[in-house]
């Protein structure tokens, strides 16, 4: 059980749980089983691709070839996942990853929180975890491309759109 | 001289020179030595960091620690350089690099063309070279962050700003 071992033994997941206090947070959401629930973060890359696909399905994303998803995870600088832990069960409820040059820039992709867990501040907690990890690697320029309905969410986290007129631009193959 | 060996023997640099026909292009710019000049592209990463710094100085960029520049080049998915070749001399006149997850996304950074070589279509040639290399790797989503004065340049190359309201956003450490 290498996955669990790494997961629970990494200082970051422990400290993230401690510092964000999700046990209380989840309890406040009114779940009768909340007392036994914990929300845990991990940078472990050994994620079950089918479980990740299920999470992405839940928010209505188009399916992508798992072979490419696997490759993208392998070549991301940071892979962050958020889990609901109840007893010895765990469920993937959030995900984000970032590409980077390991020096100056990081770009965050594929931020997703399961609909059952939205509206509880967990998206913000996941992003804080991502930013904390990127800062710890001395990345000074963090970027992302936000869909219109989440621009205000990211603005609330300190992201700026078009700072000094800089425009995010896209090119797709013809 | 591993650098030169790789440089001249890579199929991409040869084909890029052939297909873009820069010898004629440069000749049209009125340089009396144009007949002996060639513009060559390379994906070789073994770039002299001082030469790159000189190029970036020429366009007025803030200096960055060479240690970090080295790391960023090592961890970029693609490093593209543009060279003026005259006899057995070569001069770095353009540069660009891209981060990527090797599967879906690539983000282009640090696009620079030496001022002496601007206004000759070489920036466009460099970007075409970059896009060709990214396409050959099956990257389907190419992004960049454009300063206001180059937004139209990238638009002319098929880049779209804020497609469907998607906003490029930035976060900097406080």
UniProtKB/TrEMBL annotation, chains A, B:
Domain N-acetyltransferase: 39-174
GO cellular component assignments: cytoplasm
PROSITE patterns linked to this entry: GNAT
Pfam families linked: Acetyltransf_1
Stored CDD domains: NAT_SF
Listed GO MF terms: N-acetyltransferase activity
This protein's record includes keyword RNA-binding: no
Keyword terms: Acyltransferase, Transferase
Keyword hit for Transit peptide: no
Protein name: GNAT family N-acetyltransferase
């Amino acid at each position: 059980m290498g996955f669990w071992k790494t997961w629970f033994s990494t200082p970051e997941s422990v400290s993230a749980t401690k510092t964000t206090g999700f046990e209380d947070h989840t309890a406040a959401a009114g779940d009768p089983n909340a007392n036994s629930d914990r929300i845990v973060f991990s940078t472990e890359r050994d994620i079950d691709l089918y479980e990740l696909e299920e999470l992405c399905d839940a928010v209505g994303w188009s399916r992508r070839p798992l072979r490419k998803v696997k490759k993208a995870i392998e070549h991301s600088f940071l892979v962050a996942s958020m889990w609901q832990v109840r007893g010895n069960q765990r469920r993937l409820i959030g995900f984000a990853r970032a590409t980077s040059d390991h020096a100056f820039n990081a770009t965050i992709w594929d931020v997703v929180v399961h609909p059952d867990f939205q509206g509880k501040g967990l998206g913000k907690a996941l992003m804080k975890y991502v930013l904390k990890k990127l800062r710890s690697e001395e990345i000074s320029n963090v970027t992302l491309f936000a869909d219109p309905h989440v621009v205000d969410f990211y603005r609330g986290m300190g992201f700026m759109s078009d700072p000094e007129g800089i425009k995010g631009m896209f090119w797709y193959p013809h």
